[in-house]
Amino acid sequence: MQLVISSVLSAADVAKVLSLLRNAPAGEGWVDGTATSGQQSAQMKNNQQMPEHGKITQQAREIVVSGISRHPSFMTAALPRRLYPPNFNRYSGDANTFGAHIDNALRTLPGAPGFLRTDLSCTLFLNDPSSYEGGELVIEGAGREQAYKLPAGSLTLYPATTVHRVNPVTRGERVACFFWIESMVRSSEQRELLYELDMTIMAQRTRELQADGKESAESVRLTGTYHNLLRMWATP
Length: 236
Ligand code: NI
What we know:
This protein is α+β, with helices and mostly antiparallel strands. It has 2 domains: 181 residues, Sandwich (Jelly Rolls); 46 residues. It is 35% helix and 29% strand. A hairpin with a 6-residue loop joins strand 8 and strand 9. Helix 5 runs antiparallel to helix 6. The chain is globular, with a radius of gyration of 19 Å. Bound molecules: nickel (II) ion (NI). Nickel (II) ion (NI) binds next to loops.
């Protein structure tokens, strides 16, 4: 399932993140983007990133993590078990593209033992899409491609199993945040079913509450079914 979630960060939070990135002191700012990529994708990658362990990166990261953690659609779609700390990238000038690649399946988690399995990849767009040309995130599928170029503060969540690329930015700059999620529900099919069920139940409960201030017995039972499926499929 590829999903777009709008306005995950408020305009104020987006502005704070951009200001942190743009006003980073010398030595804390943009560096060559091949730092976090595997050998194969390093050949495809030509962009810039904020230093993964930098202080400014950490401050901007906290704003992003707090925004996504508060967002109910993000949480129910991703069912995150662990998050790879978000990083920030920039495409502009000569460092303006990332060719077709697939993200590494396992990543070492900074400061923790073992590996994080990347079930989902996420791109959070941070600047106004009309201020740059190109820069679409293109996700390749069987016989079709899906391109995303979203408003600042909106994100796309997609299975990390897909081959994807970022089209060259030919004018202006594209600034985004990217990260990976290990989900409590590993199967994309099961996760999608849970998401559909949860969203439908939420809509039904809201309608019932608006109509007469209480939820029906059927809503209670459906909510029970959702939780029992989660109990069966989730590895917390
Ligand atoms: Ni990627």
